[in-house]
Design goal:
The protein is an alpha+beta fold. Helices cover 34% and strands 26% of the residues. The chain folds into 3 domains: 47 residues, 2-Layer Sandwich (Uridine Diphospho-n-acetylenolpyruvylglucosamine Reductase, domain 2); 114 residues, Uridine Diphospho-n-acetylenolpyruvylglucosamine Reductase, domain 3 (2-Layer Sandwich); 110 residues, CO dehydrogenase flavoprotein, C-terminal domain (Enolase-like, domain 1, 2-Layer Sandwich). The strands form 4 sheets. Strands 4-5-10-6-7 form a 5-stranded antiparallel beta sheet. The protein has a 4-stranded antiparallel beta sheet with strand order 11-12-13-14. Strands 1-3-2 form a 3-stranded parallel beta sheet, with helices on one face. Helix 5 packs antiparallel against helix 8 and helix 10 packs antiparallel against helix 11. The radius of gyration is 19 Å and the shape is globular. The chain binds flavin-adenine dinucleotide.
């Protein structure tokens, strides 16, 4: 492992200053489950870790109109919180499968988002839940929707000196439901061959709002508006669900690699869209 300097920030301003002084080779250290592996394997040019876990806003969970989850809150604290679990099942389903118990004791939503892997499990879940990243930096604060955050594999909208303080999820509407699933060849501890999240709002049998997002099938996690358009304003039937699944398959633009082929990933995208929609609908009706 290369030698990396370590600094601990105790406030948002402190973190910005350290990141700015460190320049592009300074990296936020949250749980470290991605970035320490990357530093060890010299996959990234890193010479300073800025630990943000002593910044109070980064470690807080606040309930107001929805929930604001600090970017440094470990995953286990999120899925053990009854209120989050009840309101945001898609997020909980993704948080539960990231790594295993040991990883979930350290890994964060902020780290999963900022690592910006196309296969990141929580990003499609946050997308369908209309998550917004609260970013702080040298020019002040700004908000970026999770669906606009990733710009390429391992790349995102953050500028030098900026970091994600928290992620806000709005209160889910009445009669809404969400769900998330992935396919991996083993039962756990693997990277998704494909994943998908869905969110539905129902008025009786009619879909009044829908969001469908996919992972591991494009250079970034993908919000599929065409899949939502196949549902919104229509009754939720086998036919409309099949049309949404077909739209997801058409939007997927995967690669062939050792985990799966283009054909398999496109097929899985349709299957996962259909399954998550059916589960989201059950939850919306419950
Ligand atoms: C054994 C193992 C299994 C795994 N399994 C999965 C899996 O099933 N699914 C999955 O999606 N991932 C998996 N991962 C990857 C990793 O655990 C997740 O991406 C995790 O959520 C990263 O969070 P972290 O807090 O550890 O991030 P870190 O490693 O601390 O940071 C990751 C990156 O994001 C940056 N960063 C972190 N927080 C912020 C912030 N607030 N603002 C700006 N930049 C920030 C860091 O500088 C770094 O570049 C696995 C990793 C391991 C080692």
């Amino acid at each position: 492992m290369q030698a990396v300097k370590y600094a601990r920030a105790s406030s948002i301003g402190d973190a910005i200053k350290l990141l700015q002084e460190g320049g592009p080779a300074a990296r936020v250290l949250a749980g470290g489950t991605d970035v320490i592996v990357q530093a060890r394997e010299r996959r990234r040019d890193i010479d300073l870790f800025v630990d943000i876990k002593r910044v109070p806003e980064v470690m807080a969970i606040d309930f107001g109109d929805g929930v604001t989850i600090g970017a440094g809150v470990p995953l286990y604290q999120i899925y053990e919180d009854e209120r989050i679990a009840r309101a945001y099942p898609a997020l909980i389903e993704s948080a539960h499968v990231i790594g295993g118990t040991a990883i979930q004791g350290r890994a964060t939503l902020g780290g999963n988002l900022c690592n910006s892997s196309p296969a990141a499990d929580s990003i499609p879940a946050m997308m369908v839940l209309r998550g917004v990243a609260n970013i702080a930096g040298p020019n002040g604060e700004r908000e970026v929707a999770v669906d606009e955050f990733c710009t390429g594999p391992g790349r995102n909208v953050l500028e030098v000196g900026e970091f994600v303080v928290s992620i806000r999820l709005p209160q889910p509407p009445e009669h809404s439901g969400s769900a998330w699933q992935r396919f991996i060849p083993r039962n756990e501890m693997d990277i998704a061959v494909a994943n998908a999240g869905s969110m539905l709002v129902l008025d009786g049998d009619t879909v009044t709002d829908a969001r469908i997002a996919l992972g591991a099938v494009a250079p970034t996690p993908l919000l599929v508006q065409e899949a939502a358009d196949a549902l919104i304003g229509r009754p939720l039937t086998d036919e409309t669900i099949a049309a949404a699944a077909a739209a997801s398959r058409a939007a997927a633009n995967p690669i062939d690699d050792m985990r799966g082929s283009v054909k398999q990933r496109k097929h899985l995208t349709g299957v996962l869209t259909e399954r998550t929609l059916r589960t989201a609908a059950e939850r919306a009706r419950a």
